[in-house]
Amino acid sequence: MIYQIPYAIARQIADHAQDEYPNEVCGLLAGHSNQIQRAIPITNVASHSTTEYKLDPIEQLKALKQLDVEDLQWIGVYHSHPKSPPIVSKTDIQNASDSYLLYVIVSLQRKKPKLKAWKIQKDEVEAVDLLFDTQTPDNTAYEPLSKSQKVAIILSGIISVLLLLTISLTLLPPAPEITPIP
After folding, report:
1. How many domains are contained in the chain?
2. Both 104 and 163 in a single domain?
3. Is residue 150 part of a domain?
4. Helix (H, G, I), strand (E, B) or coil at 174
5. What is the dihedral of CA 54, 59, 62, 66, to 10 degrees?
6. Are residues 90 and 152 in the same domain?
7. Reduced to 3 states, what is the DSSP secondary structure of residue 97?
């Protein structure tokens, strides 16, 4: 399954990680189905916050209640790896609580942050594709074109070709005169 994430939300997650460096950050991901529409930062209350994360349970509960109000689903969790690649660690696998959640890791190991997504089910880890979108997912973007829209597209294409031919023909030099050889 491919998850869509707007670039602005991916940027928000990366900025959160950079702002709290060298500590790991964490938060919730919300949306519908495979479309991430919101990232909610949650305080990391882990005792070793530079190498692990633990969501503040009170903040997590408040965020989940807010998601219900906004009619959004809890899709996943994100956290950062300040000095390592965005690959699931043994600790991440041990602490993965729900197999239906998406786990997004942002790595600050290199100059440019890198996000990767994972599904963790017991001891099995599967990479998940993230599709970075420039806009918030919108169902109208995937509706088929109406008949009048199709006709308008075809007509504008024909008019463009005719206009291009007309301009091209007017720019041609006159045909050379050929005089017969005596």
Report:
1. 2
2. no
3. yes
4. coil
5. -80
6. no
7. coil
